[in-house]
Amino acid sequence: MALETVQQAQVLTLENTEVKLTVRPDLGGRIDQLEDLQTGHSWLWHPSQYAPETTRSLAVGASFDDHWTGGWDEVFPNDAAGEFQGRNLADHGELWSQRWQVLETAPLSLTLGYQCQTVPVWVKKTIQLDSNRPEASLVYEFQNQSEQQIPFLFKHHAAIAIEAGDEILLPDCWVEPAFLEFSKIIGQPGKTRFPEAIGANGEAVDLRVMPPPSSQLQEFYYTSELSQGRCGIRHQRSQSSLLMTFDTADFPYVWMFQSYGGWQGHYVVVVEPCTTLPSDLDEACRNGTVALLQPQEHQRRRLTLQLQRD
After folding, report:
1. CATH number of the domain that 301 lies in?
2. Is residue 4 part of a domain?
3. CA atoms within 13 A on the CB side of 82
4. Residue 6 lies in a domain
5. Tens digits of per-residue pLDDT, 112-161?
6. Which domain does 140 fall in, by range?
7. Segment 240-265, tens digit of pLDDT
8. What is the pTM for the complete model shown?
C-alpha cells in the first residue's frame, strides 16, 4: 500500500481579466482550477473531501482511484497498470502522482518538467495564457533518452464540474463503449455516430445531454475519426462552454468518462483527448493505434483550451 504524507501545498496562478488558472506542481503539475472571471463559474471538479491547502507524497505506482482528487491531470506513458515490454508501468502512468519541477515562470506563462521513472523520457509542459482572451495553450514535449522505440499513451484527464442539462460537445465522430460491462447508457457493442447510441433494449439514446445524479448512471466511451480536433462541455446555467481544440495528428481520439452518480457516487465528466486507443498498450500496438517515440526523438503535442460565452 502506498503511503501518503501531508506536505505544504505549492500553488501557482496565471490570470488575465477573463480567466484564472490555478496550477499545482506538487500535485502532478496539474491545472487544479479553471475559473471564468466573467461568469464566476469554476470549471474543474473536485470531490467534497478535497482539501486544496494540503499536498501529498505518493510512490510511483499508487492507485489512481484511491487518490484521485479531480482537476486536470495528464496520463503517460500508459493507462492500466501492468507489465509492458519488460517495464512495470504504474496505474494511470506516473505524471499525475509526482511533484514536477518548476522550470520557468512569467506573469502569463509557466513551464514545468518531470523525469519519468518507468520509461526513459523527460516531459516538459508549458502553459501560456493569452493576454486578453479566455484562452490558454498547453504544449507538451517528450524527449526519448534511449535508443529504443517507446510505444505510449498520452491523454488529458480533465475532470469537469457538471450540472443536469449540461451538454457534451464533440464533432462528428464514431463512438464505441470502452468497456460494455461498465456502460449504463450504451447497451450494445460496436460503433455509432455521435451523438447517437443504442441502449440495452435496442432503443436510440442521445449521448449529449447529462442526466441528474439521481439517475445513478455511468458511461465510458471512446471516440475516433473525429471530423475536427475539438471537444468540450457546455454549461447550461452560465451559458458558456469549455472547449479543447487540437490537431488530430496530436490527439486522434477522445475518451469520455462519465459518472452521473453511478460510479463511486461521483457526478463528473472527464474529458480525455488521447494519442492512443484502446487503454491496453499491447492491443493498441497490435492495432497500429499506439503513439510512438522513436529513439532519441523529441516530440511536441499541443492543445488549446478556451472559454466561449453565448
Report:
1. 2.70.98.10
2. no
3. 7
4. no
5. 999 999 999 999 999 999 999 999 999 999 999 999 999 999 999 999 99
6. 12-309
7. 999 999 999 999 999 999 999 999 99
8. 0.96
